[in-house]
Amino acid sequence: MDMYRYVVFDVETPNRYNNRMSAIGISVIEDGVIRDEYFSYVNPEADFDYFNTQLTGIDAATVRNAPTFPQLWNRIEPVMSSGILMAHNAVFDLGVLKKCLQDYEISWKESVRYCCTARIGRALLPDMKHRLNDLCSYYGICLDHHQADSDSHACAEIFLRYMQSGMRESDFIRTYRLA
Predict the structure, then answer these.
(1) Distance of CA 136 to the CA centre of its chain
(2) CA 63 to chain CA centroid, nearest Å
(3) pLDDT of residue 28
(4) In angstroms, rounded to a whole number, what is the distance separating the alpha carbons of residues 119 and 116?
(5) Distance between CA atoms of residues 103 and 11, nearest Å
(6) How many Å apart are CA 115 and CA 20, to the nearest integer?
(7) Which residues contact 143 (CB under 8 A, 6 or more apart)?
(8) Which helix (H) or strand (E) holds 129?
(9) What's the rounded Cα separation, in Å, for the pair 95 and 93?
(10) Which residue from 32, 29, 27 is spatially nearest to 2, judged by alpha carbons?
(11) pTM for the predicted model, two decimal places
């Protein structure tokens, strides 16, 4: 079994543009164990759509005193730089991260290595649905869906189940261009 450090993250967004985040959850997997977890609301400095607020429960009042993305980035960048990024439907979360970095003119990396638990699930469990809540039901993992901390933790737990089944991690590592 390969042993990498994974930074599993999930973001919630305030509106349909998906270019800002209103919350982020991070779970760090090291040596096959969840070692650390982090959560923060984020002041997106943008308007909230009704749909997003209904989905996540996050509105302007929730994030009024939360850090903006640049303030938060100073805290989470060392963690985000410390391993292979992972998310469920990773291209969505990576896209939001990329847009936040670009909008705030924050330079980081040209590209990152990442894994997607939805993509892995389609390869390992081809006969089932691969939405986060379906996989959590299948594996008996608690989930408070569309809450960034719960979603990132559930994604990490799903990945650990995949590892226990004998999955070769290196077969699923991809590269995402940020610049």
Answers:
(1) 16
(2) 19
(3) 98
(4) 5
(5) 16
(6) 22
(7) 132, 133, 136, 150, 151, 154
(8) none
(9) 5
(10) 32
(11) 0.97
